[in-house]
Amino acid sequence: MNSVPPKQDFFADFSTLTALKNKAQKDPDSALKDVAKQFESIFINMLLKNMRSTNDAIGGGLFSSAQTKQYQEMMDSQMSQGLAQSGGIGLSDALIRQYQTQQSGRMSSPETKEAGDTDFLNQVAKQDLANIQALVKRASADFMQSVQQERAQAASGLSNVEKTTAPSALSVVFASPDEFVDRLWPHAQQAGEKLGVNPKAVLAQAALETGWGKYPIAKEDGSASFNLFGIKADNRWDGERAVVNTLEFRDGVAKREKAAFRAYDSFAQSFDDYAQFLSSSERYKDALQSGNDASMFAASLQRGGYATDPNYANKIDNILSSKWFQRL
């Protein structure tokens, strides 16, 4: 059986780049997707390369050699191309959204639109490649840290039962927005009833905080925190914590900081604590008076200082108007 998907570009065929540049001038919208996929392929390749080097640092296999390394690099390049073309890991969609957002305020005339489209390749190369490299470096560092933690656990004689008690963060990742909505909607309804607000607003906030369940907060040992609402662990919290890097807005500027978040044993506990958290704080009193108005609930949360993102309420509104919420 042929394992290579049909119509898959060969990774070393550089003529595709020339064709892509021509396409960007003739059909910018279609080329936008292709360019984003190319950058996603670069990211995946860099990620694989860094993970290979991490494995080499741990200790190569019996058949490790310069020749096998060369073939591994070729295989990884082709694999990266295939993964990006067959759906990828979501990076291409993020790049497209970023570009469209940046261009939306500048495309006031056909002339500026054409200029923006033809400059897209250069713009992406300058603005995003450094970010991709930094992201790969962080991902590789996280992988190396997890390997070291596993070795430390094995050395300390941790039993298999103890190691598998807590589910990993990856095990609770949702495959799609449909799955996210279907599984968590009953919990959102219960929380909405406790708070006296529209349960759609509750679920939409959880979708925003976790990227539709694709980016859950994980504890330092890699286990799941089940924190759906980004509630931080301050001095009022006596339970477990998950310390992670987070993006905060200070005076309108995004800054990366370390923060401790509350950790739970289940999604049900997360919804219960969320309801308790809001109802016990004077800051969110107006939000709890919004009734069935989901947009008012989101706006009141932002005014109460729930998040530092200045577009927090607007993002919740966008999720509320998505097709996945229209069917609720």
TrEMBL record:
Domain Mannosyl-glycoprotein endo-beta-N-acetylglucosamidase-like per the UniProt entry, residue ranges: 169-326
SMART domains registered for this protein in UniProt: LYZ2
Keyword Nucleotide-binding: no
Main location: periplasm
InterPro entries with a match to the protein in the record: Flagellar_prot_FlgJ_N, FlgJ, Glycosyl_Hydrolase_73, MGlyc_endo_b_GlcNAc-like_dom
Superkingdom to which the source organism belongs: Bacteria
Any one Gene Ontology molecular-function term assigned to this protein's record: hydrolase activity, acting on glycosyl bonds
Gene Ontology process terms (BP): bacterial-type flagellum assembly; bacterial-type flagellum-dependent cell motility; cell wall organization
Family: In the C-terminal section; belongs to the glycosyl hydrolase 73 family. In the N-terminal section; belongs to the FlgJ family.
Record NCBIfam families: flagell_FlgJ (TIGR02541)
Protein name as it appears in the record: Peptidoglycan hydrolase FlgJ
